[in-house]
Task: structure prediction
Amino acid sequence: MRAHDLSDSYDVDHWRSFGPGMTQYIRFSENQAHLLLAGHKTEDIYRQYKMARASLIYLEIDDYGQLIGKNDDTHFTFIRSKFLFDALALYNYCIDLSWQMVYLYHGDAHFGAVQHKEYYMRASKDCDYESLKGRLVKVNKRDELFDHIDKFFDAKLTNEIRQAYNYIKHRGTFHIEGLGLNENSVPIGLVGHQLQMLSRESIDIGEWKEKLIQFDITFYSYFEDILKTLMPKEYLDNSLDFEELINTALSLEEWIKAQK
Result:
């Protein structure tokens, strides 16, 4: 499949709709604020995911205009490697953000979760594999949901994508075929021995583009299941009456008084 065709076959534009607006804040802040935090994080995932797809699409075009100084193989390879590494990072961000979305959903649900923004920031920072497992399995008894997340994270393709990202993050970068030499030894032997040279692991742009396209598809299915499991249909109802507005305002006033 071409990256250009992903949006037609695996449309994610509805993910953006989960970003909470005024209606959602008025309706859910008092007792279901966890929906707002999860919805806000879902919109983050949507934006990063769409940028990752855009980077893959840019790998498939033939005219880079002013982005490159010369239309030759070296410049084409360089700009495409840039878009490949962008997509790799962005898809990895989506993995982390999906954990945060689930973590926040199963956290605090009262006014304080949105009134005190440090709660959102702290919870996002504190979320990792072990804390997510603890919150889902030990606290909320959501073993099936955690198994779904764990199965995706432990999949061969996800591991490969994750390892490549962490390799760049912690160890350096990859060698791209067509962008200079990558020798591992001096070509002249010394008394039967060769002088070793530091070299980088090589990757092929076309091969990795295909891997990221497949990852895009698997992440789509993985996160769609999470949304269908967690987010209620009424969350997307944007109708609002005046009584809801007044009731929320009064409840917020009482909550603020109770905090003093």
